[in-house]
Amino acid sequence: MKPKTPLDTALHFLKYRARSEFEVDQKLRLKGFSEPERRVTLKKLKSLFLEMKRLGISEDIIKKVLDEDNISEIKKAKLLIQQKSKIMHNLSESESRQKMIAFLARRGFSWETISQVLKIN
After folding, report:
1. Are 62 and 45 in contact (CB under 8 A)?
2. How many angstroms separate the CA atoms of 20 and 73, rounded?
3. Helix axis angle, 35-54 to 21-30, nearest 10°
4. In this structure, which topology does domain 59-117 adopt according to CATH?
5. First and final CA of the chain: distance in angstroms?
6. Residue range 6-54, CATH number
7. Within its chain, how far is the Cα of 11 from the centroid?
8. What are the Cα distances from residue 4, in Å, to 7, 48, 57, 82?
């Protein structure tokens, strides 16, 4: 079943890993949602975050969980790179790097994760 509302789409997108507000907005835009729909959805997501804080979940714990998820994303990306590099050994370094960037991007990794894994400055 495909998510239909902007909130359902955003929650589905966030289900796999923590995303920045920009990434969520960009995904919603790519899915064809209007500026007002995206703005309302992002406000709702912020409200959910504030509600978790109101329920007594400290911001440190929320951030720690998000950071742990980010670390696991880096580990996942590194594992994929190791597997993929075995079949790219005959390419030049620049060709291999470009293919790795595209490969990870297609898998949904953020630029931050990709640059960290491939040590891009």
Report:
1. no
2. 14
3. 140
4. Arc Repressor Mutant, subunit A (1.10.10)
5. 40
6. 1.10.10
7. 12
8. 8, 19, 30, 37
Stretch (H or E) spanning 46? helix 35-54
Of the chain, the percentage scoring pLDDT greater than 70 comes to: 89
Domain with CATH 1.10.10 in the chain: 6-54, 59-117
Report the pLDDT value the prediction gives residue 32, as an integer from 0 to 100.
92
Report pLDDT digits (tens) over 32-71.
Answer: 999 999 999 999 988 888 888 888 887 777 766 666 555 6
Residue 121: the pLDDT is: 56
Q: What is the mean pLDDT of the chain?
A: 83
pLDDT in tens, 98-115: 999 998 888 888 888 888
> Token digits for 105?
């991007």
Q: For residue 57, which amino acid is it?
A: I
Contact assessment for residue 46 and residue 68, using Cβ atoms and an 8 Å cutoff: no
Q: Which of 34, 35, 28 is nearest to 11 (CA)?
A: 28
